[in-house]
Amino acid sequence: MMQEAKMQDNHSLAQMELLYKKFYVRLHRYALTFLGDEDEATDVVGEVFLQIWESWQVGATINERKNIAAYLYTRVRNSCLDHLRHRKAIDNYNTFLKATSPFTTDAEVEDFEKRITRLREAIENLPPSDRRVLKAVYFEHLSYKEAAERLEMSENMIHKHMTKAFRQLREMSKNYDYVLLLLISSTWLTR
Predict the structure, then answer these.
(1) Which of 69, 111, 123, 126 to pair with 58, CA 20 to 30 A apart?
(2) H helices then E strands: how many in the chain?
(3) How far apart are CA 187 and CA 189, in angstroms?
(4) Measured between alpha carbons, how far is residue 14 from residues 26, 28, 48, 144, 181 in Å?
(5) What is the rounded CA–CA span in Å between residue 167 and residue 187?
(6) Burial level of 52, CB count in 10 A (0-12/13-18/19+)?
(7) At a CB cut-off of 8 Å and minimum separation 6, what does 189 contact?
(8) 86-97 per-position pLDDT tens digit
(9) pTM exceeding 0.90
């Protein structure tokens, strides 16, 4: 116990430098075997030394009876495994995005955004009552019954306004499938 307290007092920058000089190259090589990337290995080893330094600053100790090399290698290994899990999660997410994205090029994204803009303009050009009903049903996701109650109309009138709005949107948007675009883009239109 006395030895641990003494070591805590001795956790100085000089002591950290000695630890760093003695183990950095070996730990870096070890991390590189896990990660296969120089920059990531450098980051991992640097993070481990930084975490140790920060823990020393708040009074943590390393028991001298423990093998410091084993402790450092274990910390680096665990940090590498965390990085690999994170990398795999990012790769899985990117794969998911590519698989579910309807766009493969910037031109397709730009074309979609132009269609969204035209659809917004077409919706704004609808008569006010048709526009209110369309927005309540599609953008607020209300049922015809809920929209009827909110807008103080009958369900039959909601249906008629929706039919009229779709007919007008179809006429305004002859060059693309307005219904599919409306369904896909309901969140984009409300931005």
Answers:
(1) 69
(2) 10, 0
(3) 5
(4) 20, 21, 17, 74, 65
(5) 22
(6) buried
(7) 116, 119, 120, 123, 139, 182
(8) 888 888 777 776
(9) no
